[in-house]
Inverse folding.
């Protein structure tokens, strides 16, 4: 069984500041991990994914995430926040090929302060 | 490449009425998923198809929800009769042949049951 915990349902940062969104996972098998972003009234857009290759994963829009097995974490970061980053962010886990079902966290709403 | 298409985008119905949602996946994607996203929560998988066969429908409330994927392409999700707690966004996603099973989401259908 797999699960995801996203710490902080709401995060506010100033424009230009570091963005850090936290995700911890639980998985009985080596996981595949994903970050998706959801803008208002839209579907989910894939930001980045971890597939057991490099532990530091770079995604779109300047985001990156680091897989830390010892901490069972996959936190999302961006060095400098932009107003356009305001959205809901979801972390998700799957067991990979043959069992691609995604289990999502409850999401973190990111607000950017001008 | 065209993305996942869904219709309608919005639907308002009275409780006990029926409703149907349509999804057209990315061309060539064999796997199709329907998720339910209740306000303030992460998406929850309802059903997964591989071509036109059901892989996982363990969380589909089968007394009122049904889904089909004729010819292994388009899919419809039906609710009959609808309850107030079915108010949610219904997301369709598809995945292709990459070993990770990366899922790409449509814009969703927002359902309000009155």
């Amino acid at each position: 069984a797999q699960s995801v915990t996203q710490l902080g349902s709401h995060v506010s940062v100033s424009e230009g500041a570091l963005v850090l969104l936290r995700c911890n996972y639980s998985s009985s098998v080596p996981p595949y991990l994903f970050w998706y972003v959801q803008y208002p009234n839209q579907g989910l857009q894939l930001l980045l994914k971890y597939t057991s290759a490099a532990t530091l994963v770079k995604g779109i829009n300047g985001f990156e995430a680091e897989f830390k097995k010892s901490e069972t974490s996959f936190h999302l970061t961006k060095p400098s926040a932009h107003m356009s980053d305001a959205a809901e962010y979801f972390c998700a886990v799957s067991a990979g090929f043959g069992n691609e079902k995604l289990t999502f966290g409850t999401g973190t709403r990111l607000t950017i302060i001008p | 490449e065209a993305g996942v298409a869904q219709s309608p985008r919005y639907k308002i119905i009275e409780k006990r009425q029926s409703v149907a949602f349509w999804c057209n996946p990315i061309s060539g994607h064999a796997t199709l998923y329907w998720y339910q996203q209740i306000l303030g929560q992460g998406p929850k998988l309802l059903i997964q198809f591989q071509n036109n066969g059901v892989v996982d429908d363990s969380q589909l409330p089968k007394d009122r929800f049904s889904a089909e994927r004729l010819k292994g392409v388009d899919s419809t999700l039906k609710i009959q009769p609808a309850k107030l707690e079915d108010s949610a966004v219904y997301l369709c996603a598809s995945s292709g042949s990459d070993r990770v099973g990366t899922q790409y989401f449509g814009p969703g259908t927002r359902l309000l049951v009155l």
User: Anything to note?
Assistant: The interface with chain B takes residues 4, 32, 34, 36, 41-46, 49, 51, 90, 92, 94, 96-97, 100-102, 104-107 of chain A (CB under 8 Å). The two ends of chain A are 41 Å apart (CA to CA). Residues 16 and 80 of chain A are 4 Å apart (CA to CA).
